[in-house]
Every structure is written in structure tokens, then in C-alpha cells.
From TrEMBL:
<dbReference type="Pfam" id="PF01037">
    <property type="entry name" value="AsnC_trans_reg"/>
</dbReference>
<dbReference type="InterPro" id="IPR000485">
    <property type="entry name" value="AsnC-type_HTH_dom"/>
</dbReference>
<dbReference type="InterPro" id="IPR011991">
    <property type="entry name" value="ArsR-like_HTH"/>
</dbReference>
<dbReference type="InterPro" id="IPR036390">
    <property type="entry name" value="WH_DNA-bd_sf"/>
</dbReference>
<dbReference type="InterPro" id="IPR019887">
    <property type="entry name" value="Tscrpt_reg_AsnC/Lrp_C"/>
</dbReference>
<dbReference type="GO" id="GO:0043565">
    <property type="term" value="F:sequence-specific DNA binding"/>
</dbReference>
<dbReference type="GO" id="GO:0005829">
    <property type="term" value="C:cytosol"/>
</dbReference>
<dbReference type="GO" id="GO:0043200">
    <property type="term" value="P:response to amino acid"/>
</dbReference>
<dbReference type="InterPro" id="IPR019885">
    <property type="entry name" value="Tscrpt_reg_HTH_AsnC-type_CS"/>
</dbReference>
<keyword id="KW-0805">Transcription regulation</keyword>
<protein>
    <submittedName>
        <fullName>Transcriptional regulator, AsnC family</fullName>
    </submittedName>
</protein>
<dbReference type="Pfam" id="PF13412">
    <property type="entry name" value="HTH_24"/>
</dbReference>
<keyword id="KW-0804">Transcription</keyword>
<keyword id="KW-0238">DNA-binding</keyword>
<dbReference type="GO" id="GO:0006355">
    <property type="term" value="P:regulation of DNA-templated transcription"/>
</dbReference>
<dbReference type="InterPro" id="IPR036388">
    <property type="entry name" value="WH-like_DNA-bd_sf"/>
</dbReference>
<dbReference type="InterPro" id="IPR011008">
    <property type="entry name" value="Dimeric_a/b-barrel"/>
</dbReference>
Length: 172
């Protein structure tokens, strides 16, 4: 079963989980099918159901498993336009960034917000909307009105080539 180790990086302590092969297999299977029954999960990784459930609960309690979600088809919901937006900010202060992050966090169309380096932008947003009119509305009436936003560069997704949610835990 996993054990926590401490890794010192940039004067911060972050727990790193050392997982055995059963833990990695359990996580691999769950990332593919979060609705699998405990009995089927135990059968897939060759453990007893009680041992499997103990491991699962321990991984949840340790915070390694953040939750369980349903993946939805955006197009079937009428959300056919995805864009990546690079945002430049006027000032690089914690207060300015916190306010921006709080405001974009309240916008349902924003699927992802990343603070980035190496670009002429401070943030990258991944947004999904119905069409170009909805995108224009989102951009002009919501995103560019957030205090501190000084530049916006948009790219539109033509096709998702790789679209994963599973992390590589090495359980193969």
C-alpha cells in the first residue's frame, strides 16, 4: 500500500505518494471507469474485495483521488466552439492575479485556467461556447472587463487530437 514521502522543493514540503503495483492498477482502472463496482475492481487487479476497498478508501482519504465525475459530450450539449485564450495582465501582483482568478472561476464557460510562463501572456484559458456569437459575448462582455486584463489572443480548436483525463500512474 502507498506510503507518503516528503519532497523539498522551493522551500515547500509536498507529499509524494509511493504506490505499489496494486495501488497503481487500482488508479488506472478507476480513471478509465469511475463507476466500476468494488467487486469488479477487485477482480481486475486480483485482490479480495475487502482489501481493494481498504486501499480505495486510503487513497481517497490521502487526497490522491479528488473525486468522481461524468464526462459529457460538449457538441451534444450545443457547445461546439472551443477556444484557447491567452490573457496578458497589466500588473503582476498577488492581488491582481487573485481577483482575475476568482472572476474567471465564476464563468461557467471557462473549463481551464492556467498561469503560464514563456509566452507573451500570463494566463491561458480553455473555454467552450455554442458558436462565434457566444464567444464574442463571452470575450467582450465578461473576460475583457475583468480589471487588469490588457491583452487577449485567441486560438480556436479545429479538432481534438488527444483528449485524455487519465494521469500516467504506471499501473499498465
Amino acid at each position: 500500500m502507498f506510503r507518503a514521502m516528503i519532497c523539498r522543493s522551493h522551500s515547500q514540503m509536498a507529499p509524494i505518494m509511493q504506490l505499489d503495483r496494486y495501488d497503481r492498477q487500482l488508479l488506472d482502472v478507476l480513471q478509465q471507469d469511475g463507476r466500476i463496482s468494488n467487486q469488479d475492481l477487485a477482480d481486475r487487479i486480483a485482490l479480495s474485495p475487502s482489501s481493494c476497498l481498504r486501499r480505495l478508501r486510503a487513497l481517497e482519504e490521502a487526497g490522491l483521488i479528488l473525486g468522481y465525475r461524468a464526462l459529457l459530450d460538449a457538441k451534444k450539449l450545443g457547445l461546439s466552439l472551443m477556444a484557447l485564450i491567452h490573457i496578458s495582465m497589466d500588473r503582476h501582483t498577488p492581488e491582481r492575479f487573485s481577483r482575475f482568478e476568482a472572476e474567471v472561476g465564476a464563468i461557467a464557460e471557462v473549463l481551464e485556467c492556467l498561469l503560464i510562463t514563456g509566452q507573451d501572456a500570463d494566463y491561458q484559458l480553455k473555454v467552450v461556447v455554442a458558436d462565434m456569437d457566444a464567444y464574442q459575448e463571452l470575450l467582450l462582455n465578461r473576460i475583457t472587463r475583468i480589471p487588469g486584463v490588457t491583452g487577449v489572443h485567441s486560438s480556436f480548436v479545429l479538432r481534438r487530437v488527444i483528449d485524455k483525463t487519465a494521469l500516467p500512474v504506471g499501473g499498465g
